[in-house]
Amino acid sequence: MTKKQGLKVWQIPVTRKLDELVTQAVDLDTHVSRSDYVREAVRAKLRLDGLLNQNSIPGVVVGKDL
Fold it and tell me: Where do the structural domains in the chain lie, given as residue ranges?
């Protein structure tokens, strides 16, 4: 199985302003793309909600598999 076969693609509508702000954040930050920025934001929110930590998902390496 290749790495891409294990991925799901999200297609979500966002407002023009949100798109502009994320693009601006990517330009100012160390993320390489909007997708990278959004993935990191989702991980951060999951951590904040207590759903993602080193032991939360058996067999999943946080930062590698997520």
Answer: 13-66
Contact 23, 38 (CB under 8 A): no
- From first to last of its 66 residues, the chain has per-residue pLDDT tens of 456 678 899 999 999 999 999 999 999 988 999 999 999 999 899 989 988 876 656 556 656 566
Q: Are 43 and 52 in contact (CB under 8 A)?
A: yes
Claim: this prediction has a pTM higher than 0.85: no
DSSP line for 32-48: SSHHHHHHHHHHHHHHH
Contact status, residue 30 vs residue 24, Cβ threshold 8 Å: no
How many alpha carbons fall within 13 Å on the CB side of residue 34? 11
Structure tokens at 23: 């693009």
